[in-house]
């Protein structure tokens, strides 16, 4: 697929969606059919600035485009899609499998623990040398899917433990002799992508302090105007929107998984007054923090 460039490839949160991350979890799990059926089994080439995909294909056919290369898959495999990697799929209607999407903070956390051999760092495809290998991955994916869909005591802790186990297993497979995955690329690491990755890392370090975009740009050694241009071009949002999305994600997590008061949540996220936090939250979710928490408790 020679003519595709990053500047013309759409950026999505989840494919076809432009709204905020739809869950207070740092991961999202669904069957491949759930989303691809809505798009006539074809997911056109796109990319994510702050999401990582792990697709487990149990059976069925897939035409895969990953970082400009096209390949046909038939049967059990795992497709690894890091942030910023251009990817597209055409699935057969009998496709059976799941896609697990990790928000970048969770993916970065796993990468830091696993190190340079983390399966999440490079785009590629893992095929299984034996039925036993495939069954180990299938079991973990099934456990993640079941835990994701039904709230229970310790759900968040168990989900993160299961995902960590999955990434460790996949990382072992990607470095095992004779089972190195087909890697697509090499990935493009131009200066713009490098700046965006550094900006996202800075956000993760200090979003609770709510620094100005000018301060963050200065730390990166670029102007705020240039940083905004890069964010809009590569991530589809302004620099401030990326900062606010991280704040919002943490706010939804605090409101869902802790007993902190609204004022305590506001203070922990750098808001000088709870009223400012409430306005920020309602502007982005259409719900007040109190109403959001009530809705989450009713769903559980």
Automatic annotation (TrEMBL):
Domain of life of the source: Bacteria
InterPro entries documented for this protein: AraC-bd, Cupin_HpaA-like_N, Homeodomain-like_sf, HTH-like, HTH_AraC, RmlC-like_jellyroll
PROSITE patterns: HTH_ARAC_FAMILY_2 (PS01124)
Keyword DNA-binding: yes
Keyword Protease tagged: no
Extent of the signal sequence: none
Pfam families for this protein: AraC_binding, HTH_18
Keywords: DNA-binding, Transcription, Transcription regulation
SMART domains referenced in this protein's UniProt entry, alphabetically: HTH_ARAC
GO molecular function: DNA-binding transcription factor activity; sequence-specific DNA binding
Residue span(s) of domain HTH araC/xylS-type: 197-295
The name this protein goes by in its record: Transcriptional regulator, AraC family
Organism: Vreelandella arcis
């Amino acid at each position: 697929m020679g003519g595709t460039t990053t500047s013309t490839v759409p950026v999505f949160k989840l494919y076809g969606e432009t709204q905020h991350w739809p869950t207070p979890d740092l991961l999202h799990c669904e069957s491949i059919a759930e989303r691809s059926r809505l798009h006539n089994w074809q997911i056109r080439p796109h990319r994510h600035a702050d999401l990582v995909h792990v697709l487990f294909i149990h059976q069925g056919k897939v035409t895969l485009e990953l970082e400009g290369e096209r390949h046909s898959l038939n049967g059990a495999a795992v497709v690894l899609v890091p942030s910023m990697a251009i990817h597209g799929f055409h699935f057969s209607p009998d496709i059976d499998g799941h896609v697990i999407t990790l928000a970048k903070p969770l993916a970065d956390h796993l990468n830091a623990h696993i190190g340079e051999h983390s399966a999440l760092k490079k785009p590629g495809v893992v095929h299984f040398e034996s039925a036993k290998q495939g069954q180990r991955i299938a079991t973990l994916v099934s456990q993640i899917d079941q835990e994701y869909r039904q709230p229970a005591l310790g759900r968040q802790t168990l989900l993160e433990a299961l995902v960590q186990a999955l990434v460790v297993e996949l990382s072992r497979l990607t470095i095992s002799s004779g089972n190195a995955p087909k890697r697509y690329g090499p990935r493009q690491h131009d200066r713009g992508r490098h700046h965006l990755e550094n900006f996202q890392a800075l956000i993760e370090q200090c979003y609770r302090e709510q620094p100005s975009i000018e301060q963050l740009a200065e730390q990166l050694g670029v102007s705020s105007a240039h940083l905004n241009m890069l964010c809009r071009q590569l991530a589809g949002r302004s620099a401030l929107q990326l900062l606010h999305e991280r704040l919002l994600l943490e706010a939804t997590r605090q409101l869902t998984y802790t007993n902190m008061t609204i004022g305590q949540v506001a203070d922990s996220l750098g808001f000088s007054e709870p009223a400012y936090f409430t306005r920020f939250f309602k502007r982005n979710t259409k719900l007040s923090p109190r109403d959001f928490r009530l809705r989450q408790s009713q769903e559980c």
